Amino acid sequence: MDNVDSFKMFNSDEERIEIKKLLSSYLYNEDTNIESAAMLSDKAVFEAETACDVETGKCTEQDAVENLIDRQTARVSVWFSENGKEIVERAFEAAGIGVGILLSRWVGPNAILISRKIGQVLGRTVSKTAEILIDKGIRKIGQFGKKLWNWTKEKVARPLYEKMKKTCNFS
Amino acid sequence: MDKEVLENMLKEYKESGLSADEFVLKVLKDKGSENPEEDIEKLNRIFKEIDKSYLEIKECKENGVSRENYLKKVIDRVTSGLNPKNIGKVLSDMIFSFRNVPHKNEETAIPYNDDTDVDYVMELSDAIKEEVITGISTEEE
User: Fold this and answer.
1) Is the pLDDT of residue A169 over 70?
2) How many CB atoms lie within 10 A of CB B130?
3) What is the ipTM of this complex?
């Protein structure tokens, strides 16, 4: 296996964007428009890189989860900026397609599994090292995620949530 | 999604000698895109904006401003002057989509206004978090 300390999935930002565009062209079809394909590509690439960062020690599982949430929030912000006005004016349909259907292409269980599979292919395509790092990193993040999920279910989250509502500083 | 098909596509790209944009143009044309050049421009723009938004969220958090606050600013900017009832319907729809639950009747969604905006944004932010956490906890079948 290559030296993981200096491991990078992509040699440059340009290479990362190229891969995302290639993935988007693969995902694009009559049910998945170019925008949804872009969102899903970004998700897959970011998750794969985050998995590598966890496995190489560049970030903790906790930071990884935080980054994944921030990235999804960024995608939602961009998606809403692009589509929100039209959807609201037409009362939740853009070009005749409901919000739920538009989002389902890159949000939810199906998107999660597609993203995971893309990550595996990316790993295999880049190198054996990448494949191993992504696989191990995803498992580590997954184990941490399961603990978080159980914590959320145990109503510990509710008092925290109420506290967050009061302390979130909305300007 | 077929892993082998994707792997073959990426292999074909490497062997083609084409630039990424040239290859993507070819794929989109073959798939019937009406304006593949425009689609590539859209891809460039979306990826750039996601990167920018992500950095803005990180910067907000470093300055003690919550992710929810950022999200609220985006929602308020996009929906300024629009029908509050419709805004409420759309945000409710988004929240249900992220939670992957059947949508309740959108007609009962409360309007988005000064009394409800924080609750809507918190619910949407929570739904996003839950979707991400569910995703990372999901094992491939």
Assistant:
1) no
2) 18
3) 0.94
